[in-house]
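Feature request disguised as a bug report, sorry. It would help if multi-protein outputs had a clear separator. Right now it looks like this:
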Amino acid sequence: MQELKEIGLTDGEIKVYLALLELGPSTNSPIANKTRMQASSVYYCLNSLINKGFVSYVIKANRKNFEANDPDSIPEIINENIKKLEQQKKKINSLVPKLKLKQNFAKKKSLAVVYEGFNGLKTIFNNLRQNLNKGETFCAFAIGQKTEENKALQLFFQQHNRELKKKGIKLKLLSEESSRKIFKEMYGSRFLEGQQELKYTKETIPSGVTIWKDNVVIHVWDGLEPMSFMITNPQVAENYQKYFDSIWEKASP
């Protein structure tokens, strides 16, 4: 009964509800025997089903006799849940601005987070794209790559670049002069164009670095899995940005 699970019933609750439909009005013990569940688990499920509107009970001879409510009532239960969710949504919508204020306050504090693997890399750049608007710019030092390196990294940055162009986010990318030929072989001459600029420098770039707003992300790639360290601190971001700008001015297209 996957449908019952999809509307919020647990596996145990489904067993108890179906057993009650077959048994009719019943005490706890027959339900436990039919479902082969412990009596305490059955009793827990029954109370939950009562709260959810699927079961009711009457007291006979000082004992609770449980009965499954008519299945025709299930659509109405769902409608009631939808109404409750709409009310909760309105309350949450009014709460969101207050939560954002708390979040913004926390962002002013220094924060360091480690992201591992491609999923971590995707999380970082998804976050970047979500928090930058059309026309805004971020800067990056590109770590040197080899044409035979993991194709997944190459495909990832190609997709990331397409998403940047789609949203109109500007990029200034600095790479080592020795990577000029490799970049063209891996990504083509039109990889960066329009609002995105690529320059090459004779300076050594020890690791990939992405700078956006108050964030600095240092990327390390060992040929197997990428690892990224994100530091959120306005002063650190400003210092990295100044360093980037000083090299950008001397770099060549």
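(second protein starts here, but nothing in the output says so)
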Amino acid sequence: MQLQESLRVTLVRDTQPRLTQGCLLSQIRGFLQFFLCLCLIPVPIALGSANGPTKPISTNAPAKPRKSIVILGDSLAAGYGLDLSEAFPAILQRRIDAANLPFQIVNAGLSGDTTAGGLRRIDWLLKRPLDILLLELGGNDGLRGISIDSTRTNLQTIIQKTRARYPEAKIVIAGMEMPPNMGHQFQSAFRAIFPEVARAHQATLIPFLLENVGGKPELNLVDMIHPTAKGHEIVANNVWKVLEPVLKEALKGSVPKKNSNSQ
């Protein structure tokens, strides 16, 4: 009942213009971050080194190149109401670094974005190297009552564009769910979008991004929409369980295969 009431508030608030100072700052921050992606700055957006010392780069040898993980998302990826270092993409980067995995996250989260918005942005994002795409979009589609077919088509088209540019790219899709007050038929159809798209495009599915976070006051900001720093830690856990094996598999695929015809 608590989750239903919380998500009802989400529906009402997400369909109204947000003019609070915090929201504007978050949207400006998200825009600036996305703008850096568009400019294709050669230095990757560092999310994992802000809270701890980094190893000095050796001047005797070039730094080992890192593979790119692009998180195309909305206010959840953008860390609405928090410092970027507290959002789940930054937490994931710290785990990647701790595991000594050669991946760099590019956080392309933008508050209020929909699958249609993500589709408009993907061509720009594909101008820079991409090895793994984590799609965290669709929640705002559902809350705004956008048709199931439109959401599904947009997600599929984003994947198709990504694979056309980078055929070997791994795709991870974050599943989302709608509150019961959206109606049982819509709720069921919306939930089914993400596993359907994942199966159709050989993508890896995160069953529900906000598992063990949604509807819990102690893990959400006062708006009961966006996770707190502690909530983002749990979201990062949900993602990491699925993402870590994908990263390790991607590294295996990057090892050059021995030519069986060579002597």
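Even a blank line would do. Unrelated, but nice: Residues 1-21, 36-61, 255-263 have pLDDT under 50 and may be disordered.
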